[in-house]
């Protein structure tokens, strides 16, 4: 059996919500085979996925991949088997991040040689660059010093200038994930545009899912969780989105039930959307309760001020109650 290890890399927290790195990491873990098929098709053909893939403890490489310092840390190692049966590892370095820093190429090389030196294994490296505005993408590291030269090249997938039309034509779930990533970058400061993109993408996926093979439909829950979180919108827009989306999901779930499908991912997606709605309703209820409590406290305070002969204008200023409310309280005493 051939052992091959996949190292998933992520940058440090950008300090903003949502957690883009965590979302990509979770989707890669959930749909690892599809990830390899989309981003590394040549290597994908050499992997025997029937033997499974194993996400190993990241402590395995901690001693030589320890670049945290607010920027990057080794996140996952995935062990896979090749079809040729050779006893060797392939370490696949995956980095999901936005703008690459000045030392990005050098850092990619350092990961390579540390992995190679530690385990003496061949290394497959790929960097996913999610910044849609970055046109210049470094894909190699060059070193030269008085005749001593080194040129290290690695694979790169950049979101910059990716064709939405071509991505939409793909049935791989990571094409939709890339589209969502592109939309997330382009609508960072435009909530209405983000809502429109999110609605369009989700409906497209729901409309195409019934025509996809059985195994493809199982992507639905993981993919929707990713899109829903990477393209976050306000509660108001989220409610509007659910009103539009839930009928599609209910229809799909009903069709799957009528078809006698044992596995029905539509019901899971529907439950997740309905649960979100309930959570928002609960939050609103709590907020209303707090607001009501504050209003009652303001009224009690106003009554005390009235008893102490404060003028209406003074009471209004101190309690933020309007004149009508203050006069009603004065009459009630």
Automatic annotation (TrEMBL):
Q: Where does the UniProt annotation place the signal sequence?
A: none
Taxonomy, superkingdom: Bacteria
- Residue ranges of domain Transposase (putative) YhgA-like in the record: 62-123
Protein's recorded name: Transposase (putative) YhgA-like domain-containing protein
